[in-house]
Input
Amino acid sequence: MSARQTLAAVVAAMPGVRTLKSCKSCLKAFTPTSRNQRYCSAACKPTRLLYPDGRRTCPTCGTQFTRTSVAHRHCSVGCRGSESPEYVRRQAVARRPHPAGPGSRPPDLEKRATATALRKEGLTLAAIGGRMGITRQRVHQLLTTARHECPA
Output
């Protein structure tokens, strides 16, 4: 039986005493303030043991920052993401200029001209869509954007 199990058995037998836990770092018995508490004080947490002053250097940019957990390696989200190739790729795509705005394609001028010519002949939007292989809503969109870009 380990020292931790022995301590737990002794405390469990005492009436009116809250359950004591053993600190994972220094093995002292303490009364936890929450159910998940593992260390008796902030001084015993692994972060404090590895980095007594709580300071660490960011591997990406070299700045000093205060760690808040053992897994905290970078000073910011930007520095954390900059190590992964996916992040670099996303940033390059985000900086690329878009001719008609983000998430849109360049306008199909040939389709627009065809739709405009057929409409001038008197065809309905559904008939134009049937000839071009697109929906009548798309025909309307092509004609509307043509009208807005070059009012004749």
